[in-house]
TrEMBL record:
GO terms for molecular function: ATP-dependent polydeoxyribonucleotide 5'-hydroxyl-kinase activity; double-stranded DNA binding; polynucleotide 3'-phosphatase activity. InterPro entries: HAD-like_sf (IPR036412), HAD-SF_hydro_IIIA (IPR006549), HAD_sf (IPR023214), PNK3P (IPR013954). GO terms for biological process: DNA repair. It comes from the Eukaryota. This is Uncharacterized protein. PANTHER family: BIFUNCTIONAL POLYNUCLEOTIDE PHOSPHATASE/KINASE, BIFUNCTIONAL POLYNUCLEOTIDE PHOSPHATASE_KINASE.
Amino acid sequence: GKMAPIFQKKSGGSRWTHKEAEGLLEWQSEGFRATPKVAGFDVDGTIIRTKSGAPFPKDANDWQLIQETKLRRALQDLVDSGHCLVFISNQAGIPRKVSVQGLQQKVQNIQARLGLPIAYLAAYKTNILRKPV
């Protein structure tokens, strides 16, 4: 099958791609390599939760990894077994509440904390790219 464009790039430096028309924000961290085995995760409630305990983050720093030691080990095992890690997020708040820069910084901080290469996809318009409501 044909791979999505984000999976066709060769490994290299970290890069953000912002497709405003589609409402899609993409990022690959340094060292990310696309593989046929993709381990995809929703970010909120799966990888991170708010530090404050509020249902929605108060700011770009209101997050913590969920069960950090176990999470890091499980994700490392996936990488070791040939998977690439792809974090996916609905970010319908971007046009209003969340700045693109704030989100980029948050995602880069999450990746740095995990210490593993990831790709990140955020759909922030209410369109076909978002999961069903």
